Amino acid sequence: MALMQTGNDAARQRAQREAAGATVDEGRWIYLSAIMHCTQAHLAQSGPAAIPRRRPELSERQRDVLEGLAQGQRQKQIAYNLQISENTVAYHVAQLRRRLECSHSNEIVAAAYLAGLLTPR
């Protein structure tokens, strides 16, 4: 038997997600603050002896896109800020994923920290 949520339960959960700093991206909730917290916790726990990742060479535009991703911006926002098309941003994200050896776009920022391309603020 499937459980159904009441309107109040759904509203409460939505408010909790929003309070946690979640954003909506294509219907999926992405907890950016949780991702960054886990990344920073991993870096703190690993210390300087962390498993080194290959530090790939990135173009200036790829670094710009990576900075936008690290700030939690969506691809549409990055495209607007850099005055390039969304397709171009998607291409750079795909190249970042390939160069940082990530299987999913959500891993790009964490991998960039581990590769030394980004530093925690």
Descriptive account of the structure:
By secondary structure, the protein is mainly alpha-helical. 56% of the residues lie in helices and 5% in strands. Strands 1-2 form a two-stranded antiparallel sheet.
Write the layout of secondary structure elements.
Blueprint: H1 7-19, E1 23-25, E2 28-30, H2 32-46, H3 60-70, H4 75-82, H5 86-99, H6 108-114
Antiparallel strand pairs: 1-2
Poorly predicted ranges (pLDDT <50, ≥5 residues)? 25-29
Q: How many angstroms does the end-to-end distance come to?
A: 47 Å
Report strand %. under 5%
Overall pLDDT level: 75
Shape: globular
Helical proportion?
55-70%
Order of helices and strands: HEEHHHHH
SSE-based structural type: mainly alpha
How many strands, what sense, and barrel or not for the largest sheet?
2 strands, antiparallel
What is the tally of beta strands?
2
- Strands in their spatial order, largest beta sheet: 1-2
Return Rg in Å.
Answer: 17 Å
Number of helices: 6
Features:
121 residues, 6 helices
In brief, what are we looking at here?
Helices cover 56% and strands 5% of the residues. The chain has 121 residues and is mainly α.
